[in-house]
Each structure stands twice: as structure tokens, then as C-alpha cells.
């Protein structure tokens, strides 16, 4: 099933890998490398799923997710948070993420999560 997926990460290599992996499976993949541009991108794209890095310059992923969850229009978009931080899972849980992936992760695990959350 084709999905619109927004990936927000400040690491260009991760964006490239995720774009390739997700495009093969889900079609429309939008990349956002600057956290402060994510909300505007979500407004414009209206994605089915968001992949969001926690630790980024300017706005952290948890701050962005809290803003999304406070928006009536965007509060129900499934969000998978990603981080290499030892506190990543806790942070993702506290700010209302639907799922968490510890970096580095297996692409198969990511694809299964995206598929699962995309059916909700």
C-alpha cells in the first residue's frame, strides 16, 4: 500500500538510506534535514507516517512531537522516533511517539514498523 512518509533527520547519510529503503516499499518519501522545517512540511504534505530523529539542532524531536500532538490536525499521525541515545526510548514514550527505533537499526525492523503503523 502506498504511503506518504516524512523522514526528519539531520544526518544526510541516514536520510539517503531511509529514502532508498522506504521508496521501494511505500512510494512517496519526503526528506527534511532541518528540524525547524518539519511542521511546515507536515502541513504541506499531510503524511501518513513521520520518522523523527530525537537529537537534532534547533528543535529536538521531542519538542517537535509535542507540538504535533497539540495540533488537532496532526495529533493522530503515527510517529516513529529514532535515536542512538540511551534515553531515546524513554524520551519517545514521554512525548507520545507511537514507536521507537534505536540507532543503528535493521531496515527490516523499520519497514515492519512502518507497515504496522500505516495500517492503524
From TrEMBL:
Please list the residues that carry the modification 4-aspartylphosphate: 53
Residue spans crossing the bilayer: none
Is Phosphoprotein a UniProt keyword of this protein?
yes
Which segments does the entry list as coiled coil?
none
UniProt record, GO biological process: phosphorelay signal transduction system
Q: InterPro entries in the record, alphabetically?
A: Bact_response_regulator, CheY-like_superfamily, Sig_transdc_resp-reg_receiver
Could you tell me the keywords of this UniProt record?
Phosphoprotein
Q: Where is the signal peptide?
A: none
Protein name, per record: Response regulator
Lineage of the species this protein comes from: Bacteria, Pseudomonadati, Bacteroidota, Sphingobacteriia, Sphingobacteriales
